[in-house]
Structures are given as C-alpha cells and as structure tokens.
Amino acid sequence: MSQIGTNIKKLRKVKGLSQQAFADLFALTRGNISSYEEFRAEPKIEVMLQIAKYFSIPIAELLQKQLTVNEILNFEDYFPIDAVGADADNLTKILFYDRDYFRQKEIMAGGNARIRFIQLPLDSNNKLLAVETSSFVPHPTDFPIAEHSILIFEQVTLEILHTLDNHIGYFDGDTPFFGSYQVGDDISLVLNDWKREIYNAEAAPHFWKLFGKFERVL
The HTH cro/C1-type domain covers which part of the protein (predicted)? Predict the structure, then answer.
C-alpha cells in the first residue's frame, strides 16, 4: 500500500504547513491535499517527483515507507560522498557559517571572517543558510540538537510567518543565536528570559527558520 498520503500529512505537520500552503508549493488545491491525506486519491507521478525533490527525500521512501520526523529533518542518509562535484547542476550552493567562521569573528571583534559555502541537493523558494552548532553560538538550555550538527535554515518571509510558532530559528544579527519562535501580539525569536529579538520589517533579513539538519560524523 502506498504511504504517500500519510507522508504528505507528516511532511506538512513537521514543516508547519497548512493544506493550502502545501498545495501552493506544487500548484495544487487544498482539496487535492485533503484527498491525498484521506486516501481518496493519489497525486500524479510528476507531482510525487516534485514533492520528493522539494523535500530532498528519495522517491521510493516517500512512496513505500512511513517517514519518521527524524528522517524528514535529517539529511545524512541522502548525501552520497561522490555527489558533491559529480552533478553540480542538482546541487544548491549555500552560505555556510561553521565554527571557524565564528571563531574568527570573535578574534577579530566582529570583523570580516572567511566565508565558506557548501553544496547540497536541496530546493526551496526562500534563501537558505547553513550554520554549524557550536559553543560560539548561544542556544536555549533545552536546545534539542547536538553540537557540531549543521542546521539548514530558510529565510523568514511573509509567506511563512504563519508557520513560525514554536519552531527553531536562527538570528544572524550583531549577536547571533539559536532560539524558538513565539507568536503572539508580536513575532519574536527567544533565546531565554533575557534575550529575544522581535521580527519587524527592518530586521527581517536576520531571521531564519529551521529547514532541516545534517548531523556530522566527527
């Protein structure tokens, strides 16, 4: 039995997308998504391929197994060693802030640090940023991600504001930090009781939402 309907629903929930928001990604209707999730219909093969490519999930797994949250958010199973450089047309070049970048900024008191890029088989309508978790970047005490993981973030835009509540985010302003979004009278990224940044038009380019993660083997 195909698992496509179950996996579409789980993808939506994990990524914080409504049925309409998910449908908009693939030029479908909310009714289409509802029918897939309720097993009243299945998407056409070209739509399945688009979904698999967009979320960087092997098409066979999208169809044949019930994906776990870990499989949806972790990319380590989908990067064959010879992929980088072998087929660059299918890779996206992403700005990468690793621990050396933050170490250099600290040494140079905020000066210009060396910029690196990584290439990953990802696809998003929004700008992407990769950040390595390390002691150089503050994070909440209950942060659920291990040190030295590479977190992939998408830049927050008006189109995804409704998906932010309780999701992990990154602020790359003068004092970068990882935090959790809280949506109420305003939208803010919270590090702890004393540190938060409020989302507004002026600061918007500095706000990022977790897109996925890649756990490095050291």
Answer: 8-62
- Domain end: 51, 72, 93, which one? 72
Please name the amino acid found at residue 149.
S
Q: What is the CATH number of the domain that holds 59?
A: 1.10.260.40
Pick the residue with more confidence: 83 or 17? Answer: 17
pTM of the model: 0.62
User: Of 161, 169, 157, nearest to 187 (Cα)?
Assistant: 161
> Residue 110: pLDDT above 80?
no
CB 181 within 8 A of CB 165: yes
Number of domains, the chain: 2
Which residues 6+ apart lie within 8 Å of 19 measured at CB? 12, 30, 33, 34, 37
160-167: long-range contacts, CB 8 A cutoff, minimum separation 24:
160/16, 160/21, 160/126, 160/209, 161/187, 161/199, 162/18, 162/21, 163/15, 163/16, 163/17, 163/21, 163/209, 164/16, 164/209, 165/16, 167/16, 167/209, 167/210
Q: Are residues 57 and 93 in the same domain?
A: no
